[in-house]
Amino acid sequence: MEEVENYITTNQDRFISELIEFLKIPSVSSNDHYLEDSVKAAFFVKEQLLKAGADISEVRETAKIPIVYAEKIVDINLPTVLIYGHYDVQPAEPLHLWHNPPFEPIIKDNKIYARGACDDKGQMFMHIKSLEFLTQTNQFPCNLKFLFEGEEEIGSPSLEKYLVDHKEELKADIVLVSDTALINNDTPSLIYGLKGIIYFDIELTGAKKELHSGIHGGTVENPLHVLCNMVSKLHDENKQITIPGFYADILEPSDLEKEMMNQIPFDLEEFKSLVGVKEITGEAGYSTLERISFRPTLDVNGIWGGHNGQGAKTVIASKAFAKISMRLVNGQSIEKVISSFESYFRSLAPETIDVQMNVLASCESALTPIDSVAYKAAEKAMFHTFGKKPLPVRMGGSIPVISLFEKVLGINSVLMGFGLDSDNIHGPNEHYGIWNFFKGIETIPFFYKYFVELSLK
Amino acid sequence: MEEVENYITTNQDRFISELIEFLKIPSVSSNDHYLEDSVKAAFFVKEQLLKAGADISEVRETAKIPIVYAEKIVDINLPTVLIYGHYDVQPAEPLHLWHNPPFEPIIKDNKIYARGACDDKGQMFMHIKSLEFLTQTNQFPCNLKFLFEGEEEIGSPSLEKYLVDHKEELKADIVLVSDTALINNDTPSLIYGLKGIIYFDIELTGAKKELHSGIHGGTVENPLHVLCNMVSKLHDENKQITIPGFYADILEPSDLEKEMMNQIPFDLEEFKSLVGVKEITGEAGYSTLERISFRPTLDVNGIWGGHNGQGAKTVIASKAFAKISMRLVNGQSIEKVISSFESYFRSLAPETIDVQMNVLASCESALTPIDSVAYKAAEKAMFHTFGKKPLPVRMGGSIPVISLFEKVLGINSVLMGFGLDSDNIHGPNEHYGIWNFFKGIETIPFFYKYFVELSLK
After folding, report:
1. Is A55's pLDDT higher than 90?
2. Between these two residues, B327 and B210, which has the higher pLDDT value?
3. Which of A299, A305, A316 faces B213 most closely, judged by CB atoms?
4. Which of B197, B212, B299, B348 would best serve as a mutation to test chain A binding (most A beta carbons within 10 A)?
5. B298 beta partners
6. The model's pTM
7. How confident is the model over A375-402, as a mean pLDDT?
8. Residue of A198, A202, A220 to mutate for B, most B C-beta atoms under 10 A
9. Is B59 exposed, middle or buried (0-12, 13-18, 19+ CB in 10 A)?
């Protein structure tokens, strides 16, 4: 294993030029215009996996954009790691904010700039290069399966069916994903918890048609007022969410978890300047890091209704709309919260107002216990290559595929990502540090090694 | 004067064909594409006024769409009536909802269907035909001045300057406007009061950029929550407006006004079905008619911010927007309410949120006392031609030009309109009853007669 550093040094120029070739393919999943490019990217990945030593590597059709599946089975008695990643990327717009064309990668200050450089082409490509190293040095601590999809940025619409249809083939002991960030290059970290999410589309209807605020103002319910009143009742003065029973089932973090959270470097002034706010706020009795890590939240993500053009239009809207989402933590059940939010939110509306609610998306929270074999293996691998024990982090975000793996395949995940929050994923001038790219290739084989060692103990 | 009925019967076919010719010109003021048509309409009006007997009739340039000015001065010692109307129309879209092309008028069930048929081409045209009658029968009780603009539907941007520049020329004793509706053809009515209006554009800013509701949710103020909280505090549980001092200066209606209001036929079930609501609501302690006639109101006319497209976007908006307007009644001062609303609304925002407020439009409330000469003259004229005393009505709406005439020229107005609420002005299939068109032509000369009689008393 120790040869991996040497192997990277010897092959570094080729690794980068191959990644650049990959980044040149505009596999934007949200735009059908790029469908052919997505297929091209799938075949590129498939070929790379074959060259790197996979026994099997295939482009598998789905309803839309194909999945690439590959495997290297060395001994069916050994543990199996399923590597997940995605080769599709976010749209690159607005193009005028990029310093280089997003699909013509450049290297500047030891970073590769291109759409997908970090999310997730650069990070998934590390796994192919680690496979190549293991093949070239003929050392496979475990079996490897690779599942790379092309629809992650549009919510993985084909993935659940694929997992159900290929449950047997995908059997594994752990899912390994590199699609997240380190705290910084001096502070390695591992995501061990993700929040769940419930996302609602909401539509209120008052009068059957638009009314005139001069002629009808003050005589009928204005749905925009009603919506504002309803939203204003969702938090109390302590910024606690008022849905009955909302907090009842939460599994509180252990003292150890809290202690570890406190080791995460956090500078409030830096945080404020980074997000661009004058002052922080949030649920009373918790710090910002606790709010992000351990506490459920509720946000209105969008609201609209009535006149939003230039000038004055004296209208009372017939309809008011909102997008409202909640982030759930360990212990909270999606079904229960959906049902209690629905009935509570409806109860806030006057009888004259019709309320339509529709769940647009949902996924359970996910946790890989920090005393689990998989977590410990990742921790050891990072300690080995970073020289520092990574900090365990519970993220405020949600990664729906992780809960899909749990739900359909019954497999936990380890999120060992090598990006940085400053990589501008989803934004203009996305980039990925070459140091991070190589550090990932170096660390992954150690994860396999320690995962097997700890599993067989 | 009594010959007017005969004169109409003799000339009815020509009157209608001339109106149809006028309605064929698509003088849509909000769309520059129709600028030439607006000019064409102005010249049509000018020629009609000359043919009808005006001494002077001119198309006067403004910054955009011209004003037509005409006059018939018979004796400078007699009173002068200034007739105001507008020859521009609302856009006709959506076209697919029209039964006939909006600028190819048709007659069906004794109504003329076309954009502008009622608002205001049909109603202003009555005044030209009344002038023609007076000229043909050589009886002018008073001097007449005509001011027809082509920008009413876009907020009369050129009118104030025109009034200021032509203050001397426009000297008159009363402004007569036909741009409103009767209660119904069996219940004539006269608008004697209009509400004032203040219309605000509001913009809240939280973080400097859009944030991620997973990563940042629950740690910073969400401007959409803040906006909802602020709006929810603008009314109390009795639906009274909470702006400090808001109701202090209101001049309450007299007992006579209230008594007359109670004579207005009002069927609650019909009202509910007309506006399409299950139940009415409004300020506690007042009836629906009182709310419309005598009470100030506050409405959010539009609200927006964050994601309003399809699907789920987990964003915390940087900005939240609203359009908020108030209708003011007799006694309330625009300046005072603007200032108290601004400081009150700002006080509702947490310090971390930046609040921008901009007054988009405002006009004072207007009242033509029902014991004034002008009101009594209109009342007598309508009594003469309808056989019924018209009911005095205070409208919930605002007509900014009326307060402009008061402010710049110092002249009150009489709103003697002959439309119906069912005429679909501003909507598809706008129409105007031929009976109403002729009834207007018949009534207007009697207004002149009685106005002079009562003035000289």
Report:
1. yes
2. B327
3. A299
4. B299
5. B326
6. 0.88
7. 94
8. A220
9. middle
* Sequence-separated (6 or more) residues with CB below 8 Å from residue A377: A414, A447, A450, A451, A453, A454
**Domain extent listing, chain A:** 4-194+365-456, 196-250+296-363
Say yes or no for a CB contact (<8 Å) between A350 and B281.
Answer: yes
Examine the pLDDT at B295 and tell me if it is beyond 90: yes
Min CA distance, A165 vs chain B (Å)? 26
Q: Does B288 touch chain A (CB under 8 A)?
A: yes
Residues B327-350 as b or e (16 or more Cβ within 10 Å = b): bbbbebebeebbebbeebbeebbe
Residue given tokens 């029973």 in the structure block: A245
Residue A448 has pLDDT above 90, yes or no: yes
- CA-based nearest distance B388→chain A, Å: 25
A310 touches chain B (CB under 8 A): no
Q: Give me the pLDDT at residue B64, please.
A: 95
Q: What angle, 0 to 180 degrees and rounded to 10, lies between the N-to-C axes of helices B121-136 and B35-52?
A: 20
**For residue B209, what pLDDT is reported?**
87
Q: Are both B4-194+365-456 and B196-250+296-363 of the same fold?
A: no
Q: Across the interface, which of A218, A308, A350 has its CB nearest the CB of B304? A: A308
DSSP B57: E
Name the B residues in 397-456 with CB < 8 Å from any A CB: 397-398
Q: Which of A116, A433, A119, A421 is nearest to A274 (CA)?
A: A421
Q: What distances in angstroms separate CA B262 from CA A441, B29, B265, B398, one per listed residue? A: 84, 39, 8, 22
Tens of pLDDT, residue by residue over B231-267, are: 999 999 999 999 999 999 999 999 999 999 999 999 9
Q: pLDDT tier at A304 (50, 70, 90 boundaries)?
A: very high
Interface test with A, best of B211, B289, B300, B363 (most A CBs within 10 A): B300
CATH number, domain A4-194+365-456, options 3.40.630.10, 2.60.120.10, 3.40.50.300, 3.30.310.50: 3.40.630.10
Instruction: Flag whether the ipTM exceeds 0.90.
Output: no
Closest CA to B46 of B59, B60, B65, B36: B59
Q: Provide the token pair at B281.
A: 């609501």
> How far off is chain B from A435, nearest CA to CA, in Å?
25
Using a CB–CB cutoff of 8 Å, tell me whether B299 touches chain A: yes
3-class DSSP state of B402 = helix
Q: Determine the angle formed by the axes of helices A35-52 and A4-23, rounding to 10 degrees.
A: 160
Does the CB of A217 have a partner CB in chain B at under 8 Å?
Answer: yes
Residues A194-253 pLDDT 10s: 999 999 999 999 999 889 898 899 999 999 999 999 999 999 999 999 999 999 999 999
**Chain-chain contact of A301 with B213 (C-beta, under 8 angstroms):** yes
CB contact under 8 A, B277 and A352: yes
Place of tokens 């079930």: B269
- In the prediction, which pLDDT does A387 show? 97
Can you give the pLDDT at residue B411?
Answer: 95
A164 touching chain B per CB within 8 A: no
> The domain A196-250+296-363: what is its CATH number?
3.30.70.360
